[in-house]
Write a structure and sequence with these properties.
- This protein has helices at about 15-25, 65-75, 100-105, 110-130, 135-145, 145-160, 170-175, 180-190, 215-230, 275-280, 285-295, 360, 365-375, 405-415, 425-430, 435-455, and strands at about 5-10, 30, 45, 50-55, 80, 85-90, 90-95, 210, 235, 240-245, 250-255, 260-265, 265-270, 280, 300-310, 320, 330, 345-355, 385-400, 420-425.
- It has about 450 residues and is of the alpha/beta class.
- It folds into 3 domains: about 5-40 and about 215-295 and about 400-455, FAD/NAD(P)-binding domain; about 100-200, protoporphyrinogen ix oxidase, domain 3 (Orthogonal Bundle), CATH 1.10.3110; about 300-400, Protoporphyrinogen oxidase, mitochondrial, domain 2 (Polyamine Oxidase, Chain A, domain 2), CATH 3.90.660.20.
- Helix 1 (about 15-25) runs parallel beside helix 16 and helix 5 (about 135-145) runs antiparallel to helix 6.
- Bound molecules: flavin-adenine dinucleotide.
- Flavin-adenine dinucleotide binds near residues 12 and 35.
- This is FAD-dependent oxidoreductase.
């Protein structure tokens, strides 16, 4: 493959994994990245002695090759533990992700009885007539009953996604929330899962977790080191501004330090957000394609890291919240003791929002005052124990699966896939709610396909 040049857009895990595999297959590789660091959503930001991820990022996989690679890359810096995670609900802590067993046994007597009856009613109804599932609301009501929908699914989901449950596609739920049916549920309450069953997205939450001692960013950094050792070039602070299809491949313009640099390549791998890519493409896609691209929305994330002298802040590494201004708290010392100085600990406080909205625009100080008031009230942390705090922001974090997203997404992708020698990879680049191991695997598969076609 000598002389065949591939350009990778974005140095997140998808882009770096593609670059790594392309080099193994003999391509010449360049990677361009807008940030000053590699890793994208799986980066670790260093501020003096503090190491901060974009939210909790344990690594788990049922893919043996990816597991092997992860262990080889992280080597002696690998920590492992079991998932322990709770939801703060009705003034009590219940197991999370929520399943019907939790609803029946952990949410308090009244909630358990009413939820149980409502679940049984929904299951009986389903038995006689298959419900029509048009959106997430239908899915949750049919699967869990009206009561659980009202007290949990509706408030939690609408706060997290910033849209109504009736506007969300049920596909996301199928991926992320345990499916339930009465018989299976009763069986699952009283029996253990069968050995060797393939892990669904939700069952993946039972896999053993791995974590590098200095933050998940070590994974991307080590892949990047390998890419560079093999002769691949990574250009940081290089923001793609134009992608042109040329006669022999692609010409990509990047803005770096106020200057424009042009890269030429035969093959293009893009992990950039789909709407952004469509907007930067020349020849310009037709208006209706651009309109569809603009309908694909990503939920954003604002993260406040609060360093303090308090140890053992929570009973588990992370807890989800329904009626606080944040949706999740993570205690970093429960992952690794090396993310902050020896006598300190950090709490990451996550706020989901849309880029440019009121939460996104809040200053570090405003968010800190808001969060610490709630944390003090709940007894997690006192202001006097705080030693430092930091703010991280990420704009393209969660693809929002609105009920019409499928139509818009396929319209855009059908247009983009007409272009030869271009591959869309990763979570952001495929508008797909994927985990780290999945984006790595998919990037490898995309490169293997290209290599196989190039040999033919
Ligand atoms: C809060 C949170 C928790 C998570 N927890 C887990 C977990 O526990 N386990 C797990 O396996 N996964 C987890 N994930 C998912 C994981 O982070 C992603 O699957 C993975 O990082 C996606 O990688 P990517 O390369 O596809 O996308 P990204 O990381 O988004 O990479 C895209 C890259 O493109 C760059 N880019 C964008 N625009 C431009 C431009 N114009 N020019 C140049 N570069 C550009 C970006 O800066 C970025 O580096 C979590 C994600 C989040 C947000």
């Amino acid at each position: 493959m000598k002389g065949k040049k591939a350009l990778v857009l974005g140095a997140g895990l998808a882009g770096l994994s593609a670059a790594h595999r392309l080099l193994e297959k003999g391509f010449e590789v360049e990677v361009v990245e807008a940030n000053s660091f590699v890793g994208g959503l799986a980066a670790t930001i260093k501020e003096g002695p503090y190491y901060m991820d974009f939210g909790p990022h344990p690594f788990y996989t049922e893919k043996e090759d990816i597991q092997e690679l992860f262990k080889e890359l992280i080597a002696d810096d690998l920590l492992s533990f079991e998932r322990r995670c709770l939801l703060y609900f009705n003034d009590r802590f219940v197991n999370y992700p929520l399943n019907i067993r939790t609803a029946l046994f952990e949410m308090g007597l009244t909630t358990s009885i009413v939820s149980g009856l409502s679940f049984a009613k929904a299951s009986t109804k389903k038995f006689f007539r298959k419900p029509e599932i048009k959106n997430f609301e239908d899915w949750a009501r049919a699967g869990f009953g009206n009561h659980l929908y009202k007290i949990f699914f509706k408030p939690y989901t609408e706060k997290f996604w910033g849209v109504k449950c009736s506007e969300l596609d049920a596909f996301w739920a199928n991926q992320r929330v345990a499916k339930v049916n009465l018989i299976k549920t009763l069986k699952s309450i009283f029996s253990k899962p069968k050995k060797g069953e393939i892990a669904s997205q939700i069952e993946r939450s039972n896999l053993l977790l791995f974590y590098p001692r200095k933050g998940i960013g070590m994974l991307a950094e080590r892949i990047a080191e390998r890419v560079q050792k093999r002769g691949g070039k990574i250009y940081l602070n290089s923001k793609v501004s134009k992608v042109k299809k040329t006669k022999n491949g692609f010409s990509v313009e990047c803005v770096s330090g106020g200057k424009t640099k042009t890269f030429a390549a035969s093959y293009l791998f893009s992990s950039l957000p789909v709407p952004l890519f469509a907007k930067m493409l020349f020849p310009k896609p037709p208006k209706d394609i651009l309109l569809s691209a603009s309908k694909l929305r990503y939920r954003s994330l604002v993260l406040l890291y609060i360093a303090s002298t308090k140890q053992d802040i929570m009973q588990v590494p992370y807890i989800y919240f329904m009626n606080r201004s944040f949706h999740r708290l993570t205690e970093t010392n429960k992952w690794s003791q090396e993310l902050s100085p020896a006598d300190e600990n950090m709490l990451s406080v996550e706020f989901s929002c849309f880029e440019g909205d009121a939460t996104w625009n809040k200053s570090k100080e405003q968010l800190f005052e808001q969060a610490i008031a709630e944390l003090e009230k709940d007894g997690f942390l006192k202001k006097s124990e705080v030693t430092n705090y930091f703010l991280l922001k990420a704009p393209h974090v969660y693809p929002v699966y609105l009920t019409d997203y499928r139509e818009h997404f396929s319209k855009v992708m059908n247009h983009l896939k007409e272009i030869d020698n271009i591959y869309f990879i990763g979570r952001t680049g495929q508008f797909n709610y994927l985990d780290m191991d999945q984006v790595m695997k998919q990037s490898f598969i995309a490169v293997d396909q290209l290599a196989a076609n190039a040999i033919r």
